[in-house]
Design brief:
189 residues; mainly alpha; two-stranded antiparallel ribbon; 4 helices; 2 strands; elongated
């Protein structure tokens, strides 16, 4: 196909206008591309959605029954909080009373300890003895327990140990008690 032939050839009308290729100063018409099928609108969908008009909108409103229930719930909650607070305050008052009583008893205990220390002091005991007619001895004799004999063999575990007689009890403790008992009853109150 020559350039001259293409210039004589009639143009086809296309939807986007004529298309030409250019080579140098000459323009060559190009065959039109096949047209695509026309686009259809969106496929029909089920009509389950709709536009809501502002006048059709409904708000949930607080019904009188719901208002009463809500008010009752708030009242019961506040009452429970007030009762719990009352119980806490009563417990705190009781704890304060117990703390005060504890402080008083501790002070009394310290006073009694001081009184016992004064009553147990050796100077007070000597003074009480003098008031009852006791006198101090001229000669003090301190008693010492006998020391164990180091030269004697030690006893082994499991061997019977002989306990010496107590010299203050005497040979016959039953007889000594029977002699002492009448003397104690005679000096009773």
């Amino acid at each position: 196909m020559s350039m001259l032939d293409s210039a004589v050839r009639p143009r086809r009308a296309t939807s986007g206008g004529a298309r030409y290729l250019t080579r140098g100063a000459a323009a060559v018409a190009v065959d039109a591309q096949p047209l695509a099928a026309p686009r259809r609108g969106p496929a029909e969908r089920p009509n389950h959605l709709r536009v809501v008009v502002p006048a059709e909108r409904t708000r949930r409103r607080l019904t009188p029954g719901m208002a009463v229930l809500l008010s009752a719930a708030i009242f019961v909650t506040l009452l429970a909080v007030a009762m719990a607070q009352t119980v806490l305050v009563q417990g705190q008052v009781r704890l304060d009373k117990l703390d005060a009583q504890l402080a008083d008893e501790q002070a009394r205990y310290q006073e009694l300890r001081r009184d016992v220390a004064v009553l147990e002091s050796p100077g007070r005991i000597v003074e009480a003895a003098h008031q009852q007619g006791m006198v101090e001895p001229d000669d003090l004799l301190y008693l010492q327990p006998p020391s164990p004999d180091v030269s004697a063999p030690s006893t082994t575990a499991g061997a019977e140990v002989e306990v010496p007689d107590d010299p203050t009890v005497g040979a016959n403790p039953d007889r000594a008690w029977s002699e002492v008992k009448p003397m104690l009853e005679a000096t009773g109150p």
